[in-house]
Specification:
The protein has 317 residues and is an alpha+beta fold. The protein folds into 2 domains: 37 residues; 267 residues, Nucleotidyltransferase, domain 5 (2-Layer Sandwich). It has 9 helices and 9 strands. Helix 5 links the parallel strand 7 and strand 8.
Length: 317
């Protein structure tokens, strides 16, 4: 080891910390210093990355926290800390990469979940984050890229925040198709102005079958689909929300906290946001789309190869 000050040789001078970081002292100037450890993809957590990568892979495949605890032999508190670190880094990466995108046909939708308890069970003294939560998602029809998402309530303010974020990531005119949520009718023109072709696809469902116990958990059949042009001149062949709804199905299958009728639901809003960010970062950069045969990020020209989980976390450090 060479001294950083005078350039002469040094000798070992003990160690410090629980990680036993080696210290050195110069034989000439008597300065002491230690090894500089490279930044870990999982921050200051002391577990090896191989085990951390296994835990993240299990979470991405739809395992619950306690299932990962049994499979990987890590404490559940460690797994949740790891989830928060990975989610923050994934969100940071997407925020940096998803800029000046030229996407032609965007589909917008929301997927429902809840934090701690459902809306009907909320009490007056519960924290505001408890109750129903909605994940707003935008997906490009051609590249299958998800450029923007937002976790919040299905209210006007959160809808507008999602639309403004999406607008700031795009470059050029685009066509947007949304579901029948009435907040879009005002929010899209306010956020995008006249530089958008906007249509809504309103689906009406027949809920009559829910009168019987057999049909309680069955999906309602679609009674009618109404297409309404709200702004500009959208192409009728691309007025659809099928791709983003299929993406929502993937989200519900690949994240345990979105599975219905289980105990794996989110207990904290911060962990829900981290799980969604991690899933979408992995979806965009690491997971090969079965139709495209490449990742959505490769199809959109954001990268030229399939990313690993380590690369995903290091890029967002």
């Amino acid at each position: 080891m060479t001294c950083h000050v005078c350039g002469t040789s040094c000798r070992k001078f003990g160690s410090y910390g629980r990680a036993k970081i080696q210290r050195y002292r110069c034989n000439v100037c008597r300065k002491t210093f230690s090894d500089l450890k490279p930044e870990s993809p999982i921050g200051e957590m002391r577990i090896p990355f191989e085990k951390a990568g296994q835990a993240i892979a299990c979470l991405l495949e739809g395992c619950s926290i306690r299932s990962v605890e049994r499979l990987v032999n890590l404490n559940r508190n460690t797994i949740m800390r790891l989830l928060l670190i990975a989610g923050v880094r994934s969100a940071r990466l997407m925020d940096a990469k998803m800029r000046r995108l030229k996407l032609k046909y965007l589909q917008l939708d929301e997927i429902w979940t809840f934090v701690q308890k459902k809306k009907r069970n909320r009490r007056s003294d519960d924290p505001p984050e408890f109750g129903d939560a909605w994940v707003f998602v935008a997906l490009d029809e051609e590249t299958k890229l998800i450029p923007a998402f937002f976790v919040g309530k299905r209210i006007k303010a959160d809808t507008n925040m999602f639309l403004w974020d999406l607008y700031n990531r795009l470059d050029g005119r685009t066509q947007i198709t949304t579901d029948g949520l009435h907040h879009y009718e005002e929010g899209v023109p306010v956020s995008f102005g006249l530089d958008v072709d906007f249509a809504q696809l309103i689906k009406l469902f027949d809920h009559g079958q829910f009168d019987s116990p057999e049909g309680r958990y069955s999906p309602s059949p679609i009674a009618e689909v109404i297409s309404k042009v709200r702004l500009g001149d959208p192409d009728p062949d691309h007025i659809s929300t099928s791709f983003v709804e299929r993406s929502n199905l993937t989200m519900r299958q690949q994240m345990r906290r979105f599975t219905r009728l289980t105990l794996g639901f989110s207990k904290r809003l911060s962990h829900l946001k981290a799980a969604v960010a991690l899933h979408l970062g992995f979806y965009n950069f690491c997971r090969v789309h079965s139709t495209l045969r490449v990742t959505p990020a490769m199809e959109a020209g954001l990268t030229d190869h399939i990313w690993s989980i380590r690369e995903l976390l290091e890029a967002g450090a």
